[in-house]
């Protein structure tokens, strides 16, 4: 014998809310409708579920046993209905985003916090990793959105490109801090902390020094812009730092100057070409992409301050 779920739901609401009136309000139906559902349930089950005592419905022992059995089911359906509502209003689901380390220390956590503020049921998968691994993750479907450095070496990725001007960080007590703009000639022989010799910023910086006939002196190699900045704070030398790392730092112990010629960091937002973005993913990119674009530079605006 099958029993329509609505009858169980009415019965559950009466016990949970205490009165037919409160149960009707909870389910959004009339009092006669909920009384009718209860009568149908008693006829179907051939059980007396309530006694009326002093104008109130008192559950019978049979009703107590039945309530315990259906409580999990009814609550489960309520959660399903809420999840459907949240998904329809982009307030639930999962945000899956992986970024390079530069964005992970301040920019991306701030964006995620703002995005999730009115989405209490949103779950978040957020990782920072090296760019090649991020591309592999998005291709494999482990993450929906990837933000990484160029080049893109994986097939099947949709790409949005951005270019960000790096700035030169110097120890606060450096004599070179008196200059508003630094050049390879001014920094001839000055110790540098670089992001590995093959990194695009290091390679472009080395080429800039070579073009002006200045000596490019490497004091230290590291794998993160944040590491390079911390070494600058300790007085080990200068470093070109991306705007995201500078924004998330307390700006103490060093000074920042523009470097000419401009050295750019190329960033790309990648998603899988063969999988549609979720509504949550689209909403998140609608928030983040314009803010990244506002910090980026183009050929007509290289002199704009990215900070």
UniProtKB/TrEMBL annotation:
UniProt keyword Transcription present: yes
Keyword terms of this UniProt record: DNA-binding, Transcription, Transcription regulation
Residue ranges occupied by any HTH lysR-type domain in the UniProt entry: 3-60
Keyword Cytoplasm recorded: no
InterPro entries named among the record's database cross-references: LysR_HTH_N, LysR_subst-bd, WH-like_DNA-bd_sf, WH_DNA-bd_sf
Pfam family, one: HTH_1
UniProt similarity note: Belongs to the LysR transcriptional regulatory family.
PANTHER family the record matches: TRANSCRIPTIONAL ACTIVATOR PROTEIN LYSR
Protein name: LysR family transcriptional regulator
């Amino acid at each position: 014998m099958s029993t329509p779920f609505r009858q169980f739901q009415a019965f559950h609401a009466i016990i949970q809310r205490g009165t037919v009136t409160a149960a009707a309000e909870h389910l959004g139906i009339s009092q006669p409708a909920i009384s009718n559902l209860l009568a149908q349930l008693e006829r179907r089950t051939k059980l007396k579920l309530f006694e009326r005592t002093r104008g109130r419905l008192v559950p019978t022992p049979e009703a107590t046993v039945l309530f315990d059995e259906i409580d999990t089911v009814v609550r489960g359906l309520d959660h399903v209905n809420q999840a459907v509502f949240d998904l329809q209003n982009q307030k639930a689901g999962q945000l899956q985003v992986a970024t390079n380390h530069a964005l992970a220390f301040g920019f991306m956590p701030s964006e995620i916090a703002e995005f999730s503020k009115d989405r209490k049921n949103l779950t978040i998968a957020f990782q920072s990793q090296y760019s090649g691994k991020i591309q592999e993750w998005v291709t494999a479907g482990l993450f929906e959105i990837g933000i990484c450095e160029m080049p893109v070496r994986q097939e099947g990725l949709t790409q949005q490109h951005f270019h960000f001007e790096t700035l030169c960080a110097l120890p606060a007590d450096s004599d070179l801090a008196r200059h508003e703009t630094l050049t390879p000639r001014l920094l001839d022989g000055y110790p540098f902390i670089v992001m590995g010799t093959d990194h695009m910023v290091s390679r472009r910086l080395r080429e800039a020094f070579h073009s002006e006939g200045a000596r490019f002196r490497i004091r230290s190699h590291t794998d993160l812009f944040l590491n390079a900045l911390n070494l600058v704070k300790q007085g080990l030398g200068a470093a070109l730092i991306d705007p995201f790392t500078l924004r998330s730092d307390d700006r103490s112990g060093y000074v920042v100057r523009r470097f000419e010629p401009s050295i750019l960091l190329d960033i790309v937002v990648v998603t899988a070409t063969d999988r549609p973005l979720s509504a949550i993913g689209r909403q998140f990119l609608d928030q983040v992409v314009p803010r990244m674009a506002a910090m980026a530079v183009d050929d007509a605006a290289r002199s704009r301050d990215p900070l």
